[in-house]
Predict the structure.
Amino acid sequence: MITDKRQKNKLASCHRRKLWQDKVIKRIFQGSAILAALMILFIYFFVISRGIQPFLPSYDGDQQNVLSFLTGNRWRPDMNPPIYGVGFIVINTILTSLGAAIISFPISVLTALYIAKVAPPKLRAVLTTIVELLAAIPSIVYGVYAAGTITGLVDDFAGLFGISTYGGNSALAVILLLAIMIFPTITSLAVVSIRAVDRNLELGSIALGASRMETNFKVVLTSAKSGIFAGLALGLGRAFGEATAVSMVAGNRMIGPTLNPFDITRTLTTTILTGMHETSPGLDYDMRFSVGIVLLLVILVTNLSIQYVKRKVGGITNE
Amino acid sequence: MKIFRSLIIIILVLSLFVGLAACGENESEETYAPTDAPAETTVALEETDPTAESGLQGEIHVYSRDASSGTRGAFEELADFEEQLTDNAILTESNGDMAAKVGADLLAIGYVSLTTDFAANNIKAVNYEGVEPTEENVLNESYTLARPFNYVTRAAGDFGDADKEALVAAFIAFLTESVEGANAISSAGGIVDVSSKRAWADLQADHPVVSQDNSGIEIVTVGSTSVEKAIRAALETFQPMAGNFNFKMSHAGSGEGPAGTVGEEKDTAKKGDIGFASRAFKDTEEVILGMSTGTFCLDAVVICAESSNPIANLNQSQTAAIFKGEIQNWEDLD
């Protein structure tokens, strides 16, 4: 009887201790989540509070006009007064990133489908490793590759049409570079989401008389669309955000927008990066934060439009 | 089976690395010493230019640096087209980036510092006003795409501390007369005639202040941002030789140099012990009041083109017209 009671007590204290441990661990997890969320808030707060300074009447220096900043088609910080127009840069950024996505998205999705559904297991493992390795290459390495090889190819290609380029530095070089850079991002997310498609859906489709390929395209891909579009959003995010590699081949044109693919271009990130180490605190420095706000907005709008497109792409939902 | 699979993976990964390494080698060759580029460009030359005598034909590709570059500031000022650079110019990231990109584009024109490795980048230096850009010509002032880096100190007795005054005098001697000072300046890109200098060991005797502990003294330099690199190099070299004094550099522009030492700002927060200007001092700047003043080195910019470009010489008006976008084609250049 007594031993029974003791055992009960022991069990209860053990249980209490476990509950207490659970609580502590829960708090630790909560703390890290809050810290991560706060970091986003801090970054947004810092960039925005710094970036809106030049447009406020209290600015210590030349106050800038928001409208001419957002719609401007020239970026001439060397002029007096300096001209900061970001409108054409936004168009250039969207054009180069979309161009890269248009090239990369179909290739990525088909590669993912092949890896996940068609390839024999041995080849699948090899291909998965290759895609992961591509994702691990640092952007500066892609940059030297682009400056040394892609520009040469673009220059030769332009020569076929009798067009002379700035040594291959061009919007097309940026598009090709970004297409290569976002390929692994889109592919690896697409592979994961295609693998997650319910096997019964496929079996049902085949049982109803569809061929394997019909099933793959009409059932598997549409069911995996959520993950595939998440991959596209991440890929576009990388394309919008890539600065180092892009600045090596973009050419930083001061006027625009650039619609000729063989002409030099300028993106939001290269505008922030170029001359950062040589500039001194002042208007030129603060304007980089203003460009940062515009970049954040562009990425936000793009992600929202991808969500919209995703909903429009028909088929079975697997969310 | 498992072993076989992982073996295949390892082999493929290795071959991928080898492939990537090969790519890397190729492009570094192309960027820094383009061995096959001239061959390609001669083809382009033949296509656009049937008669070799009439020179190069085609659109001029203007290469420049971003607006915060000191070299760009110097070049635009010396060739006299400030704030007028053509909107069509391509902007490069650095002196090395400019050299590599101009070397890969037959129709390019750009500018680099005199210390650039021209042959390795497949570029050639263009004469300015008929004068070849060499260190000698910069020093004898016949090459005019150059500017002096000048200094002026506070007036004697105006330093507020005799030791500080002696230390500033010692630094000026180090900067303008010693081999060590000249080496520091030229390592930072300044052009200075090292052969006419003496070893600091010989000069040191005149400046006993350097042998005491000067860690309580802070020398403040003001003025041109262009001189910053050279002065920092000289100060850092001199610091351990002169009792570990401290220094603070607050450079904002050439005008601040004389103003903060002998001018109207000499007793304000913008005051300094030594002021610098990357141009000749103006008559309105009373540098004669200073304890010492003079030129400590020169800075030169060189116009460059791809090495097979036939261009040999440009004068100031041609240079300004090209970079302003008024002359747009190579055949329009007489």
Remarks:
- Chain B has eleven helices and ten strands.
